[in-house]
Design brief:
Elements: E1 8-9, H1 11-15, E2 23-27, H2 39-45, E3 52-53, H3 73-82, E4 90-94, H4 102-111, E5 117-120, H5 123-129, E6 155-156, H6 158-167, E7 171-174, H7 178-182, E8 201-202, H8 218-227, E9 236-239, H9 245-255, E10 261-264, H10 267-271
Parallel strand pairs: 1-5, 2-3, 2-4, 4-5, 6-10, 7-8, 7-9, 9-10
Helix pairs in contact: 4-9
Length: 285
Amino acid sequence: MTTPVPDLVSTGWLAERLESPGLAILDASHHLPAAQRDAGAEFVAGHIPGAQFLGLASLIDEASSVPQAFPRPDQLGARLGLLGIEPGDTIILYDDSAIRTSARAWFILHASGWENVAILDGGLAKWRAEQQPLAAGIRHAAPLSPTRLAPPRGVRSKAQMLANIETAEEQVLDARSADRVFGTGIDPVHGLPMGRIPGALNLPFTDVLNADGTYKSPAELRDIFTAAGIDLHRPIATTCGSGITASVLMFALHLIGVKDAALYDGSWSEWGADPSTPKEQGPAT
């Protein structure tokens, strides 16, 4: 499949193309420990026919000091090769996660220069609700040589975020829930004190989604970002707990044509754990 696909595809669109050549479907499900779910086992029990399991939880650079660090280009290329994905393939991502992890997989691929990659709107939950077909077990693709990928673009480091506090060149937008961003207790997810990067605005990632997990319309998304205090004509850096839900905001910004956006990969799990970084707590002043 060489024809460009929409960034967001419907369940009906995918159902009609399951057998299309050059189409790779990847389950990018990953869950927080508190969910007590095994994404790999759930994939074996039931997945979209023809899909392969990406293994997003292990797609991190473990040599990095950054928690859940962005994978190295060679690491990502090796994973895609292992799954039998050709450099020109179109990749459709989906998940069955409360934190919409397909957006993290999308950002990893998009930032690494993969041209044709899309997200299944509503994910596996919507696919199931419509009683679309499911398959069980694992299909092993013939492995290929690692794909050569570019160094990622649009990924911010702690040093860059520290410098940005002084310059305010990029607006910082936190995707966590408001209680975690403006609270004063202990963050229930990462076990760190609640708080935020100084000057950060807040837009919970759930606000860009409908009740069924599909993304809101472009017009609604623009209004939501604007209501959160974001100037869509200025640079934006998204952040969250560990770089996952910030990717949901990155994808939503992509849907409305915002190009000047980046993601702080270390997010609060790095920033909050460092006693030397400045932090704000409590209600915004």
